[in-house]
Write a structure and sequence with these properties.
This protein has 10 helices and 4 strands. It has helices at residues 3-20, 43-58, 70-82, 84-87, 96-104, 116-124, 130-134, 138-144, 147-156, 188-192, and strands spanning 23-28, 31-35, 64-66, 90-92. The strands form 2 sheets. A two-stranded antiparallel ribbon has the order 1-2. The chain is globular, with a radius of gyration of 20 Å. InterPro entries: DNA/RNA_pol_sf (IPR043502), DNA_polymerase-Y (IPR050116), Rev_trsase/Diguanyl_cyclase (IPR043128), UmuC (IPR001126). This is DNA-directed DNA polymerase. Keywords: DNA-directed DNA polymerase, Nucleotidyltransferase, Transferase.
Length: 193
């Protein structure tokens, strides 16, 4: 889709999310975090309602991941999409049993913020799954790598290090323009473009 259509659809999706949750944070053009504190009842069912509402209003199938931290919510979202036929597009890993299953069955390379180089370093330390990273010593990770990977491990273990509103990418603007390849002296080529 052209960018202006993507932007419009993104605004519609974000508006639907904002209308259904107590707090939200737009993370990117196609991702948002929502605070669900105070939402009563089954959160998986609530996630499926969000998904169904977005699909009905925009035609866009989304995944909904629910977790006690941003990193776990991203992991739940990844699982919701990966196992769509089983999850119906929504996964809640606030429950320790579900969380541990997801952590054990997700490669560390699939964790938010773990790139190719970091994956190689972690695998050299026998950290192959998200569970391995969640149970690794955070101080060792900080000393060997950075505070970022330490926070990732703590978040996977259930300790929130990134509150709603934190870690959002800086605002960016995009300018789309055409070049004509030569200096223009009349307006006609611009009108024809």
């Amino acid at each position: 889709f052209p960018f202006h259509i993507n932007g419009d659809m993104s605004e519609r999706v974000m508006s639907i999310i904002e209308s259904m949750v107590p707090a939200s944070e737009v993370y990117s053009i196609d991702e948002a975090f929502a605070g669900l504190t105070g939402v009563p009842g089954d959160l998986t069912a609530f996630g499926r309602r969000i998904r169904a509402n977005i699909l009905k209003c925009t035609g866009i199938p989304v995944g909904v991941g629910i977790g006690p931290t941003k990193t776990l919510a991203k992991l739940a979202n990844h699982t919701a999409k990966r196992l769509l036929s089983y999850t119906s597009g929504a996964v809640d890993i606030c429950d320790l049993h579900n969380r541990n299953w997801v952590l054990r069955n997700t490669a560390v390379s699939e964790v938010w913020g773990v790139g190719k180089k970091m994956n190689a370093h972690l695998e050299a330390m026998n950290i192959r799954t998200a569970m391995d990273l969640a149970t690794a010593d955070p101080r060792t990770l900080r000393e060997r790598f950075s505070v970022v990977i330490e926070k990732t491990a703590r978040e996977l273990a259930g300790t929130s290090c990134l509150e709603l509103g934190e870690a959002a990418p800086p605002k960016q603007e995009i300018c789309c323009s055409r070049m004509f390849g030569k200096r223009l002296t009349t307006i006609q080529p611009i009108k024809e473009a």
